[in-house]
Amino acid sequence: MGKHHYFVAVKLPAEVKAFLQNWVKDHQEEFPFGRWVHPEDFHITLAFLGFAEEEMKQKLVRSLPGILGQEPTFTLKLNKIGTFGAVKKPRIFWADTEHSDDLNRIQQKVYRQCIDIGFELDKKPFRPHITLARKWNGDQDFNPEKLTEIGGQLAFTVNEVVLYETHLDQTPKYVEYAVFPLR
Fold it and tell me: Could you please report the per-residue DSSP string of 74-125?
């Protein structure tokens, strides 16, 4: 049995996953990326843990209900598409949400708790996004002028955070390990 990686993320409702899946179907030809994310794997990462020792993982599972259970549900709105990496050959294609103080507060609480338990986390600033695809694979360079609003301004309620386990050998590859409801 291989070692799995773990991450804490905002779980997206089914209607958001379906909206994004339809958007991808309508625009996939226009954006020739090498690997498209399975719609069931859409999420917003709050903290990437990597491999997690069982004791640390269980500490996190025991502690997050007390932290997240005090947080009220909140609304996010899909915003626009964008990329990470080189402008001409981006490595990540994403959709984001409008700025949310609620999302930032939850991310900071989860991040601090993970650090307090002993996880070594990425120190880059939090950039909430939903990865849609990876690795530009076009014959031409990527045209950043094609980056627009994703359309519809779809709003959705965030009511739970999930600790996901990664299974690289299956599709979809993210499995819910533990679920933490918001108040």
Answer: EEEEEEEEEEEE-SSSEEEEEEEE---HHHHHHHHHHHHHHHHHT-----SP
The residue from 5, 43, 99, 167 that is catalytic is: 43
Residue type, 152: G
**Contact present, 24 and 3 (Cβ < 8 Å):** no
pTM above the 0.70 mark?
yes
Identify the three-state secondary structure at position 69: coil
- Given 4, 27, 99, 129, the catalytic residue: 129
Q: Would you call 167 a catalytic residue per the annotation?
A: no
The one-letter amino acid code at 95 reads: A
> Which two tokens mark 156?
């959705």
Chain segment 116-155, per-residue pLDDT in tens: 999 999 999 999 999 999 999 999 999 999 898 886 678 9
